[in-house]
Specification:
The complex is a heterodimer of chains A (165) and B (708).
Chain A lengths: L1 H20 L1 E9 L13 E8 L4 E8 L5 E8 L9 E7 L5 E7 L3 H8 L3 E7 L7 E4 L13 E2 L13
Antiparallel strand pairs in A: 1-2, 1-8, 2-3, 3-6, 4-5, 4-7, 5-6, 7-8
Chain B lengths: L1 H19 L8 H14 L1 H4 L14 H8 L4 H11 L10 H14 L17 H4 L6 H4 L5 H4 L12 E4 L11 H5 L18 E2 L13 E7 L11 E3 L2 E6 L3 E6 L5 E6 L15 E3 L2 E5 L4 E6 L5 E6 L13 E4 L2 E4 L13 E6 L5 E6 L21 E2 L7 E3 L4 E5 L3 E2 L3 H4 L11 E5 L6 E6 L15 E5 L2 E7 L4 E6 L5 E6 L6 E4 L6 E3 L1 H4 L6 E4 L13 E3 L4 E7 L1 E7 L13 E7 L8 E7 L5 E7 L5 E2 L1 E3 L3 E5 L4 E6 L5 E6 L6 E2 L1 E5 L2 E8 L5 H9 L11 E6 L4
Parallel strand pairs in B: 2-36, 35-40
Antiparallel strand pairs in B: 1-7, 3-43, 4-5, 5-6, 6-7, 8-9, 9-10, 10-11, 12-13, 13-14, 14-15, 16-19, 17-18, 18-20, 20-21, 22-23, 23-24, 24-25, 26-27, 28-31, 29-30, 30-33, 31-32, 33-34, 36-37, 37-38, 38-39, 41-42, 42-43
Classes of the chains: A alpha+beta (165), B alpha+beta (708).
Amino acid sequence: MGLRLGGMAILALALAASQAAAESFETRLSPSPLTDGTRVNITGEGRALVTWDGNILSVSGNFQDLAGNATTAALYDGLGIGIPGPKAFDLSLTQDKSGMIWGSLQLTRRQLADLRAGHFYVQIDSEKAPDGNLHGWLLPPHPFPGEGVPVAGPGFLPQFDVSKK
Amino acid sequence: MKKLLATSVLAVALASVAALALEDGPFTADQARGGAASYAANCAGCHGARLQGAGEAPPLAGASFMAAWGNRTTEEFYNLIKTSMPYGNGNSLDAATYRSITAYVLTYNGAKAGNTALAGTEKTRIAAVADGKTPANLAQAPVPAAAREQPATSYPPGRFGLTVAGELKSYNPVTDAMLAKPADADWLMYRRNYQGWSHSPLGQITTANVKDLQLVWSWAMNDGGASQVTPIVHDGIMFLSNVANTVQALDAKTGELIWENRIGPAPTRAYGATRALALYGDKVFVPTTDAKLYGLDAKTGKIVWQTVIEDAKEGYSNTGGAIAIKGKVLVGLTYCNRYETKHCFISAYDADTGKVAWRFKTIALKGEPGGDTWNNLPDEFRQGAETWIAGTYDPELNTTYWGTAQSKPWTRLSRGSGIGATLYANSTLALDPDTGKLKWHYTHAPGENFDLDEVFERVLVDHDGSKDVLTIGKVGVLWKLNRVTGQYEDSAQTVFQNVYEKIDPRTGVPTYRKDVLEAKIGDWISSCPGPAGGHDWPATSYDPKTDLMVIPLHQSCVLMRAEPMEKKIGVGGNSASQKLFEMPGTDGNLGKLAAYNTKTMKAEWSFQQKAPFLTGVLTTGGGVGFVGDFDRRVRAFETATGRTLWQTRLPTSAQGHIVSFAVDGKQYIAIESGLGGGSPVGKPTTLLPDIHHPNNGNAIFVFALPEN
């Protein structure tokens, strides 16, 4: 019994250590760059969460209310926060107007640095918006306290970083 | 010689082939003819009767239009104007009208009518049917009356002048001493005091009782143009500017009209009312949207004098209001974004006579100090540096502080200004108000590239003997300078920005991103924030008790594409296309309100909300602040903490400058509901389609505590 308890304790400690080491990044998925003329096709919203456990990057998310079925989803490595760049990884998705995205990936050291610098973003394309329907930059968790609810300081304020490229 | 001849023949042949190669347009002649009248009635007010463009309205004809639209389709053009035009009123015309306007624009660009009516779904490449050359019969046609004077939607045409005669029982002339130290009950100028604080010392409304605020009176104002006004209050009389350069004197306690002067003309562009009247002596000063300055008798509203600031027929305007300093009225000028031999300037006029006292040109020309910052461009192609927000003043230093807008066109590539700083665009100017002489300047955004103005309020604050001037522009950086010397002191980032890689901590000079500097015409380049700011015209408020500056902020981004600009006198516009997106890390909250300690430059508190703010902030001696937004909401908040204490909603978006005043010992809060304007309204209209407000409803609402 004691041994079993001890084993569980060790497992719990290992899990806790693993969780402590894990880093997470998240984003709201919102319409890709649009004009009044293209707004009718670039609709919907969603959320994405990625977790880096030291070896694997796990991606999960959902989307809804697209004007046409989703066709592809991918992680892109931009030039900086808010600056588009090349595709880095394809993701799996539900090819529907609402659905899920997911994937498990391995990152190079440089890609990990880019992820931590906020360069990575998720993009979902659709039949109606093949060049980008939803997107969002992956940033550290930043819970929203609610409309008009004050926080101390400037709130979540990412700092721009282009030093890597 | 033979070779030359052959080359010439080949060139002529190629030109002929090119001309012949134009296909018939996907529209009929009848559609184009009908489109001329529809264009004049709905579009010419902003884009110009000759489709030449002005202000934020791009050219719709010629090389600039073809550069922007030649490789895009007629369907795309039709969809764009249908969903977004007239500006802020997309889908307000019937589909046939949008189709006919599309046909007219194509015809104006050399397209020939075909046999099939435009449906709007044709994927015809515009360059396949148009070459940007206007047929002579259209280029020389008289300008339709509707394009010369577009009546506002709810404005009775022809009714101008002193439409309501009346007389104040008494009027205390406004003196230099009053302006230097305004009575607590008054709101004598744009931001109440010369320091630009937008702060009222009145303390009857407190954090404890603000929840009891009630509407005392309201007053509908002229619709038909942008309204972002500041009620000016002196001795219980409210002077109110309206669309169509209308000025009214109202009893500030009851809302009774005493006199009204509809100076006119009816608005012919997106901007309809000056942001700020000015008072001095026995007069009210009215800078108008047709670039004139009027001195009205404050007791009767009658015109005492008028003077021309600049020729409105050439597109110039004043929207930024005026400031009165030692017997002079100082005004700015806007819409200096066409290639002309003239340039933008700040000017001063004698308050008694209207006679011009001085002008300070805000563009450095060849051979002048700073003239070498324009990449050797000819003088006529150095434009912008508008002053569309009135300045502030330090009586002790006898210095007036003004901000300037960016150079035009917006992007370095379209301007051809290279890496030049383009003085005196996007700068703080310190001028001698007696002579207009420049004391110093500081350029916040040298060679700006994304329509990120640094034109907004200059706020004067003292700390332990240090005389500072603070300002914040569209990039969202709060700047602090020494206002005696113009030396950079400090800065703080208030929203996410990715335009600058870094800001030199010693000089404040920003370094642009590498991909911005290496961009080519046609590249889509990211700008966070976009042209709505960061910070825009809705002004900050400085609370001297807490040393907090409360700043309304906007959070959205754009991809911007530089378009080529034809280097030709008369051509105008900003020459860039935009696509909008939410700012990363904001979770779709376009609105942010933040309070910064002006000594430490650290944020004390902040909050976010979906709707962006469209009013200036008011702080008061009772520790209560007020702000209004795109979603018709007005919030009262505790200045020290940002905690919401009271809120209400107006009939349409809350817009303009909130003021406080007192009559017979009672404190009032005046808030405008208003419409129209540029990016601060346009961006959320596109990005927040679920937020609705009526497209009319300019009005003023006055609140106070109950009698008991």
